[in-house]
Amino acid sequence: MEDKRKEYESSLKSIETENKIDRIFYRPIGFSIARALKGTGITPNTITVISIFVGAAAGFLFYSENIYYNCLGILCLVCANILDCVDGQLARMTGIKSEIGRILDGVAGDIWFASIYIGFALRLSHLHGTYWFFALAVLSALSHLLQANITDYYKTLHLYFISKEKGKEFQTVDDVDAIYAAMKPGINKVFYFFYRWYTLVQMKATPQLQRMLASLKARYGDDIPEETRLSFRRQSKHIMSRYIDLLTFNGRTIFMFLVVLSGFWVSPTLVWVYYVYEIIVLNCILIIGMRKHEKMCASFV
Predict the structure, then answer these.
(1) Residue 80 — very low, low, confident or very high, per pLDDT cuts 50/70/90?
(2) Cα(288)–Cα(247) distance, rounded to whole angstroms?
(3) What are the residues whose beta carbons fall under 8 Å from the beta carbon of 63, sequence distance 6 or more?
(4) What is the arithmetic mean of pLDDT over 35-60?
(5) Average pLDDT of the residues in 264-279
(6) CB neighbour burial string for 73-107, b if at least 16 within 10 angstroms, e if fewer
(7) Going by CATH, does the domain composed of 2-298 fall within 1.20.120.1760?
(8) Among 31, 45, 48, 150, fewest CB within 10 Å belongs to which?
(9) Taking the model in full, what pTM does it have?
(10) Domain boundaries, the chain
């Protein structure tokens, strides 16, 4: 039992960066599936590709006003997120990891939600006879991209302060440029071209964080004192649990599922509320969370 618990914990990036719903529901299921697939030769990237199709089906099912199709769409999205857990846990259990796998993993979630935004817009356009709802879909998609970008950055930064091993995914634009320059032409290099801009946005949006990293580098090199690491993690974890976790898959889908199911007893047109939630509410949470995180980083300079 103790060995299984250690194997489970080693399949996670870190307990500190997992939110409560993931720890209770998604991760344990993902671990069981990953454990069963461990010796089959199925790769994490294969699981990621399957999750893309399963998650994208949710958008098609949310287009319908039929509550049974909507419930099936919710189930598809839940299963897609379980598969998203499986690919990462399987990668850590088997040691089959790649930079492209990490990028593909992030793209998968974007595809799920893009299909949902389109499904909602098509439903609303069909009910109201106007395509202006696609403007809300675009604003939601752009908001989601920024929110997911910053969330990923803060979580990988937190891992960097746990240990060098866990923080390997934390990269600067210079790191990405070096890898990009060494890559041969092909689809992988195309992925990395766009990933560079993804990383550049993270750096431009967090000036105090960049100052903190430069200051710590100048003072300690790669050997940040444990006391400093623990202090940063304590404050970072507080900000993540209060703000950043609301911008993750669980933070947005709980509200989305309630909105979708409300079509059964209120109105199928109510899905526009989710656009408002993502564009206004989640962006406000993002701004507050970023300001608090930047203030925290400034205290370490």
Answers:
(1) very high
(2) 12
(3) 119, 120, 122, 123
(4) 92
(5) 88
(6) bbebbbbbbbbbbbbbbbbbbbeeeebbbbbbbeb
(7) yes
(8) 45
(9) 0.90
(10) 2-298
